[in-house]
Amino acid sequence: MAGEPSEAGVPAAEERTLVRGDQSAAGPPQPFFHSRWSPKPEHIRDLGPAAGLPDGFRAAGVACGIKPSGNPDLGILICDSEHPTSAARFTDTGTPAAPVLVSQQHCRLDALRVVLANSGCANAATGRRGLDDAAKSQGAIAMAVGVQPDEVVLGSTGSISHYLPMDNVLRGILDASSRLRQEGDGDFQQAIQTTDAFEKRANLEVQLSCGTVRLSAQCKGAGMISPRFATMLCFVQTDAVLGAETADLLLGVCVQRSFDRCTVDGQLSTNDAAILMCSGASGVVVAPESEDELRFGEALDALLRQLAIMMVRDGEGAERIARVTVRGGHAPSVEAVARAVANSPLVKTALNGADPNWGRIVQAVGGALGGRGPYPSPLAVDISIEGIQVCSAGNAIPYDETALAKAVRAKEVEYDITLPGDGAETEVFFSDLSHDYVTINADYTT
Amino acid sequence: MAGEPSEAGVPAAEERTLVRGDQSAAGPPQPFFHSRWSPKPEHIRDLGPAAGLPDGFRAAGVACGIKPSGNPDLGILICDSEHPTSAARFTDTGTPAAPVLVSQQHCRLDALRVVLANSGCANAATGRRGLDDAAKSQGAIAMAVGVQPDEVVLGSTGSISHYLPMDNVLRGILDASSRLRQEGDGDFQQAIQTTDAFEKRANLEVQLSCGTVRLSAQCKGAGMISPRFATMLCFVQTDAVLGAETADLLLGVCVQRSFDRCTVDGQLSTNDAAILMCSGASGVVVAPESEDELRFGEALDALLRQLAIMMVRDGEGAERIARVTVRGGHAPSVEAVARAVANSPLVKTALNGADPNWGRIVQAVGGALGGRGPYPSPLAVDISIEGIQVCSAGNAIPYDETALAKAVRAKEVEYDITLPGDGAETEVFFSDLSHDYVTINADYTT
């Protein structure tokens, strides 16, 4: 935290990666579709990390000195198609960062050609100068790769309240734009990461009825992850031919079922963005309301859900993750209860300690419904953990203690909550609250 | 967590006291009014812990085996006045515990004579049997001390989802009712504590224009503390003559300015209760809309605010506490921002680590205002920490880095946030998020 905010030596969030070195060694879970909560659809094939981007895309990632560590911190992704289509979703925060504001206000979000992303500096709470820096970056890369500035979407992640070191950024843009290649997605991924302990990246093949298309994604996020929409940076590419409206519809629906349903610490970032770009290079058309729209949508849905679960698994300090599913007859209550349980520090520490203390779930349910909802007291709530019912109509009931103690020691734990009535249902994925979360976020003193 | 919930050997929350032994040794801050946020009014005198209860009150606390540790776990407080008045506030949760439901539905809350409180078991999520147990306790103590059951208010605290061991409770009632004495408030206090590291108790003398009255309080609470109203058990006694309506008015206002404005972990308990009882033994009348109503109200306000701040200070694992004050022109935004900052795990870990990372405050502000509020982007928010301004109209500004680093190492840290407009203002007291919070709540495995 500089007294006079400077343009270099920014103490960026990525420094914290050091703390997590041992976790990083563990690497990402394999194969890509590894969670029971995101089964791989039959018509998807995982091509692995080395498969490269879909036709029509190139990417690069370089180190330009935004991160004092010298790690990669600037990435470019470009679509070479003549008529690309795209769709975008951004954070819902009341304090959006400069790159979000510039992207929302000065971009053709339905026809993007270029992503410029950096880590090590969020360019947030930087006022007019931050907006100027963002616009300057947009102009510089447009010149470097020969597109219009409004075809460039921006993504930044890192510490809030620091200015972008513009000399470094401009040098990085020149460097990265000379290294663009179809196999550059791994370098691009490295350049957008901050406290991530492992890569969140996929290269898939999707079998449609009219042919085969590719789907790739690069994603970062490990903290400041909240259930209200996006949570991070996520860039998705396909060589399918999608109209901009179809791309927008599918991205919107899939984001709601993935990034909108996960939480690490209930904190909404200033910088979140999810971008879908379509090169059309395969010639395979995904027409509105066709069977292939459904099949492509299923693939995108599976991809984003698995990425969202990986973000939760990589939540800062996370040792165990969970899904809470809430059913009942009143949609707002179901939603409020799911988020209250997922963000409860008491539930999250119990998850961490493999403590089957379901009284804390009762407490979180009550806190969410307090003073609202159509429910008489005592609340007739049912609670099951990993299929073992522990609470029936608000009453403690006998259960197999040994089986429950074993179940909550798993890497993924399932909570089911049923409120009175039926018709409404939702789910939230969440991580635990561990000593490492505190270490990462408290012991790092600027 | 018993497979078949049993009536003995309840693994109660108070076991966790052991973890906090070293903090306990530190004892409560002295004198009682020690925070800059709750200055002692001129007309109050602190009589110290040994002064005993106001005339007309007796109390006792015993160990009856609800806590496996053998620590005190059942307390009785009785008003011997012929015409006592009283007022009560309870948790706003959607899953209230049996003692709350029975007290709300079957008590003369404006004319209470007896408090029966226990720790070690919350009697929550215990259904019909829990309600029967609560009613049985109420009947037993009514017989033992010679009052009507509806003159007995109940308070329970401890683990959720366990039944009260009724044999122990009945034995404890007999034992405690034979030990009632005016100096029994210390024993009573011990009997209602769970993870509390120090006593939250006061004996005050209040100078009114018509005479001097006494005011005492016993309070417990260290976790599951939320900003939505009460947060714990708090029992207040006075020998002033108050009408029941005056008592209700004053308790309501003072609770809103104290227990309603503090948070440890944003978790709303199933069992919270605040009870004011007036014996009238002093003969000094506090008449409605009199100067003495104001003076008595000021004293009650100071008492409850200091108790609320002590609860935050004793928040599970708390090493540092803070007050966030938010000003602006839109009351719902001001409220949402204050609570979002106070409950943000990123702000709370920064407070713990004495990290002046105010970017996290920007993030919390944005998260609270996202998608709502009347504010254009970028948000023109001002932020000061301990009077040092770090953010002006949403922009990072130069500040004295050394002074700020020193300021955030204090035991009490002050955050000021100003949104556009004026006329609305609120405050929330909160604790940090430390390793000890995780230890207390995760490493304790049933």
Quick rundown:
2 copies of one chain form a homodimer. With 446 residues, chain A is of the alpha/beta class. In chain A, 31% of the residues lie in helices and 23% in strands.
Q: Strand fraction band of chain A?
A: 15-25%
Instruction: Using the 3D structure, state the CATH architecture of the largest domain in chain A.
Output: 4-Layer Sandwich
How many helices of chain A? The count is: 12
On the 0 to 100 scale, the average pLDDT of chain A is 87
Class of the largest domain in chain A in CATH? Alpha Beta
Residues in helix, % of chain A? 25-40%
Can you summarize the main beta sheet of chain A?
7 strands, mixed
What is the radius of gyration of chain A computed over CA atoms, rounded to a whole number of angstroms? 22 Å
Multimeric organization: homodimer
Chain pair forming the biggest interface: A-B, 92 and 92 residues
CATH topology of the largest domain in chain A: L-amino peptidase D-ALA esterase/amidase
Spatial gap, N to C terminus of chain A: 6 Å
Number of strands of chain A: 19
User: CATH homologous superfamily name of the largest domain in chain A?
Assistant: L-amino peptidase D-ALA esterase/amidase
Summarize the structure in words.
2 copies of one chain form a homodimer. In chain A, helix 2 crosses helix 3 (127-145) and helix 6 crosses helix 7 (291-313). Chain A is of the alpha/beta class and 446 residues long. In chain A, a hairpin with a 2-residue loop joins strand 7 and strand 8. Mean pLDDT of chain A is 87; it is low at 1-26 and 226-231. Chain A has 2 domains: 13-313, 4-Layer Sandwich (L-amino peptidase D-ALA esterase/amidase); 321-442, Ubiquitin-like (UB roll). The first copy, chain A, is built from 12 helices and 19 strands.
